[in-house]
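Figure S7 source data.
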Amino acid sequence: MTISTGSPWHGSMQEPAGGADLDARRAVEAYMLPSAEPVRLVDPEGRHVHNDTYPLPDGGALLSAYRELVVGRRVNDQANALVRQGRMAVYPSSHGQEACQVAAALCLGAGDWLFPTYRDTVAVLARGVDPIQALTLLRGDWHSGYDPYEHNVSIQATPLATQLLHAVGVAHAAKLRGENTVVLAMCGDGATSEGDFHEALNFAAVFHLPVVFFVQNNQYAISVPLSRQSVAPSLAHKAVGYGMPGERVDGNDLAALLAVLGKAVDRARDGGGPALVEAHTYRMQSHTNADDATRYRTDDEVAQWVPRDPLQRMRTYLSELKLLDGAVEEDIAGEAERVATALRDGLNAETQVDPEDLFRHVFSEQTSQLREQAAKLREELSREEPSAHGSGA
Amino acid sequence: MTISTGSPWHGSMQEPAGGADLDARRAVEAYMLPSAEPVRLVDPEGRHVHNDTYPLPDGGALLSAYRELVVGRRVNDQANALVRQGRMAVYPSSHGQEACQVAAALCLGAGDWLFPTYRDTVAVLARGVDPIQALTLLRGDWHSGYDPYEHNVSIQATPLATQLLHAVGVAHAAKLRGENTVVLAMCGDGATSEGDFHEALNFAAVFHLPVVFFVQNNQYAISVPLSRQSVAPSLAHKAVGYGMPGERVDGNDLAALLAVLGKAVDRARDGGGPALVEAHTYRMQSHTNADDATRYRTDDEVAQWVPRDPLQRMRTYLSELKLLDGAVEEDIAGEAERVATALRDGLNAETQVDPEDLFRHVFSEQTSQLREQAAKLREELSREEPSAHGSGA
Amino acid sequence: MGTTLTFAKALNTALADEMEADPTVVVFGEDVGALGGVFRITDGLTARFGEERCFDTPLAESGIMGMAVGMAMNGLRPVVEMQFDAFAYPAFEQVVSHVAKMPNRTRGKVKLPLVIRIPYAGGIGGVEHHCDSSESYYAHTPGLTVVSPATVPDAYTMLREAIRHPDPVVFLEPKKLYWSKEDLELEALRSSAGSFGRAVVAREGTDATLITYGPSVSTALNAAAAAAEEGRSLEVVDVRSIVPFDDETVSASVRKTGRAVVIAEAPGFASVASEIVARVQERCFHSLAAPVLRVTGFDIPYPAPKLEHFYLPSVDRILDAVDELQWEDA
Amino acid sequence: MGTTLTFAKALNTALADEMEADPTVVVFGEDVGALGGVFRITDGLTARFGEERCFDTPLAESGIMGMAVGMAMNGLRPVVEMQFDAFAYPAFEQVVSHVAKMPNRTRGKVKLPLVIRIPYAGGIGGVEHHCDSSESYYAHTPGLTVVSPATVPDAYTMLREAIRHPDPVVFLEPKKLYWSKEDLELEALRSSAGSFGRAVVAREGTDATLITYGPSVSTALNAAAAAAEEGRSLEVVDVRSIVPFDDETVSASVRKTGRAVVIAEAPGFASVASEIVARVQERCFHSLAAPVLRVTGFDIPYPAPKLEHFYLPSVDRILDAVDELQWEDA
Ligand SMILES: Cc1ncc(C[n+]2csc(CCOP(=O)(O)OP(=O)(O)O)c2C)c(N)n1
Ligand SMILES: Cc1ncc(C[n+]2csc(CCOP(=O)(O)OP(=O)(O)O)c2C)c(N)n1
Ligand SMILES: [Mg+2]
Ligand SMILES: [Mg+2]
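Tokens for the predicted magnesium ion complex:
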């Protein structure tokens, strides 16, 4: 096996090609350029929109995805409530973006990998990670609470775009072993401005790796609007610079997301290399509870996105298809409620933190320096009295 | 004045555009996409090639540019010789790329700025920098030998792509003051893979700054071929991701370079924003004298580029136009010889380094720490005897 | 007449006053415009001075830093905000290879009068990457001036001084102090002397010296107060300016007291605290009755919120260290 | 029977032997393939093990480091080459925020067995950015194991140990030693004991201890030899492993001799040298007849080739420091 790099047209740069190649060149460009409009299969009114390239996923698939959507929304609401009640320090909600979250999880197979960010808790849970373990981070018990290998879900990354490179490495290792693992790596619109975004897409393209880069363009990076991140016609256009296909999709259309991401994942698994998918969506709430969105956007702007809600449109579509009726709705609502209750109970339970943990995992074998420091802390804590010197600062 | 960002189509991302916009969209893409072939105005046989977009620069302009080309080649040869004679530690030659070097310098006005790399000594000299000052770096006397403000030429940058951001900053400051300065920033094909390349192009695009990014694609980054840097159809295609125009040009065609860079500079000065220009050329010699190119490329490959030499083709073209005859050739050769002699003499002269300089420029005002350290060194050096402890290590 | 300001507001006022005084000062970074920064340090600047004086950039720290270098080369005085300590790391190459070296590289032809503001250190229950004490990386890099205010008046005067400084300044803002308040006389401060290279004795004492800076100064002062109740007199030196370092004030104090504890939040290994210990023992060896001890963060990644109180230098830990200073002869 | 190898060839052999022994080892970076690296440390590896085991990447250090993190997460043991010290800075965020922290962040679920090879330090007349001593940045970062071999046998054994190590290792290769030669018994070395966390006494002595590592060990040994001619017996400790640090060996030596000089090429301020001074005076205070002194690089950017000899710790400078160790009582 050798490192297979590149794409069909690679190599043609060495020498100017003859005129016969020009059409092929333009075809290649067309292959990389995203469709002129974000792909949409179900419109905000819940009606199917025909698309030549992307067939509508079947009803059963949409129904189970819808179930996750409702659960995801409930998770966001419940997490916000827990923050208000002081059970969690902070929660970056994906309210409004749940269709992206659900599709990111559902388009992958069990052996595939997901690389989420701080905002992608709903996707993490949809992939099967235990909710309480996932919220360990935001509750402040530890920097990450689940075993990434259990569901092939990497840690929820905070430093923007850095995780895209880890995704590339995981895919590269799998490819070198001849496995057909696909990796889906998520980031926001703001993160596309970071150098690591560029390096990750380029590495994936040059090494022809099965990575789907999934940008949730929710129009804001905290307070900074998209227009301050990019003046390209779309973020998906960035694919051209790496020689990979770019696609845009309505990020509030669960059906379109499943279709577009599904195709990119299949293509990657079949050796077609990486792709960039941009979902056009909106962050309905503040960046986190610590943020104040009224400082930088109007209520009017937010209001425009309300009728495009991803849940509502799927509900309408599925109801009209008769896939969804009162009984099914109730069943789904019940499941969402169970998840919410589990979340609440889990987070209301007091957790014990162990100061010895501070020193346990820094190295596989504790260094003599850390042994000394741990001993010092242990000794400090073991003194019966709350210290001779009073209460501390 | 406000920060004017963006491009004509910016803002259209907020909402899917109607079908009427589609043609406009595709037009915008066409505007950013480079021409299918690198622009060429004079072919390797010295014949004019017609181009609808780029008229041929006039004969007088070409003749003075040719003069610089000959001088540039002579500088490269002389510098290589000085390395062999041990007068310089290292020299990254631009042999074969001199047309790019000359065009980069000539397309700018006196108030404009040039941001060169270690390989761009010929461009630096063509802009008027004193050759001996420029070679201070490679002779090892100091990290940079000329005053960047004298000719608006920044230091020759070593850490790849970092200087592109400095160029953006210089342009931004000029724009904020309402000056119409243009900045031309150079880098190699390898440097386009760095995160800073991405961030620089994006900042320039978002702030709509007058920066021309000029990539000399000489097919190699030390030993690594272009195919390991990018699988995009061309490096110029990267412009699309930033919403700026990209163009490709035959990097061994001085006429085409002057035309393409000249147009990009004019456009930038007229408020048209940044552009990316990729010159298709070849590094005829090793990366530096310390490199051994036979380890990674064949003599055959190098030989293919010999007939595309930028000097030869300009000479043929100008001779056939009768702009160049024996007398003019001789005059140009004489000038090149004078420059070479000055270089040789300058570098053969012994320079004195002053150890106090080590501490002089770290801060505007020396800190007490550095005063102490400088005093210690002074004391050490001032001891009459070559030290009580023998000769040192 | 004095006014009561928070640390955050003092910084905000310093920025505004300096932008008013010098039209070449420009402020930029992530969320510094409409939002006024996640800590509101740049609040109101865009409204008051316009978008060209205070503006948001694309989300890219190396880009911010590199652009600042170019702007400083070309006549402006950029003041950039790194949103949190750990988010300055993507800019590390620009800081180390260019910000720190450009003036020296060009023999002073190119000056870089720019300020890198970094909200730093912990104690606020922040999640990972939001609590790093990164001063040692910068202090170790020749060419950077590195300072950290520990009081509200210093927040104001030192930031103004940083902006006027002819060389690049890494300006470290202890996050946990942002909400602290003090009365101060702004008018008097406007004409106060420079503080770069000058430590201050924040509390006088005779038995031992606590040497510290930034977020740990208040903890040290609390420790000194507690010690006083136990009959031990501790002097507290606020270093303020890490580079350049005020050897004179620090050494004078230690020579007087004969004992010293260095306190800092960063992991201790190869840190600014190590440096202070090394300098003090070099300069005050014969005055020392005991080794110079350190109370620093452990050599571990900054802990999650629920564990950070185990990590941070505390009054108790400082007093324990003081107790270890071999008082048998006292 | 012994063979004579250069330091560079010993590293190359270690890579080849470890790639042979463990099929999960992969080597990548800039110019490490066909060229064999600018210092030829990876020479022949692609030819012998194939392109999938040793390959060139696009020119992007953060990319190299981030990809290595992912590969290590997924069953491989990446050994990456940063072409020169200062060209590792673009990868700083990946190193500090992920390489160093991922195992701790995941409570040891994710291990990152990867090696970051960095040709480092000066003394070779290199141009700017090619001679930085960057060990202090890494040593200050909790979670990184930081080592530097100073002899040809250590080059071989320590690199093999680094690759087998379960945690990320920053492996600092003193550039000026690449061409040094030594006889060695490869077979015996293959079974030699581990060196991480263990300093060695490179030369025994009684009057004072020189504590150093990497490029400065040979200079210290030369200084000790020169001192011996003047009748002064200096012990030389080669630290080898900066993190973890061998306090036992270092302290034992200083307790024995009562005097110490710490030597390192990096600027001294807030450096590994500061740390060693701080530790030694904490642990050996009552054995010390004089302060622990330092001979380090000045606190200035690494100088241009024609000036570097003024900057580098030299035999004379070391001996001058030894002379300052208050011998009046001797
Ligand atoms: C390297 C880095 N810089 C800055 C931050 C601080 N920060 C956290 S989230 C955020 C905005 C991210 O915007 P985007 O990528 O669009 O994702 P979103 O939050 O909208 O999902 C910023 C600036 C960070 N986490 N990492
Ligand atoms: C950040 C950084 N990484 C690595 C290097 C080492 N290096 C110097 S030149 C070079 C190759 C550059 O190739 P390219 O950009 O194509 O320019 P060329 O030398 O061909 O002109 C490399 C890897 C560097 N100077 N800076
Ligand atoms: Mg966003
Ligand atoms: Mg090149």
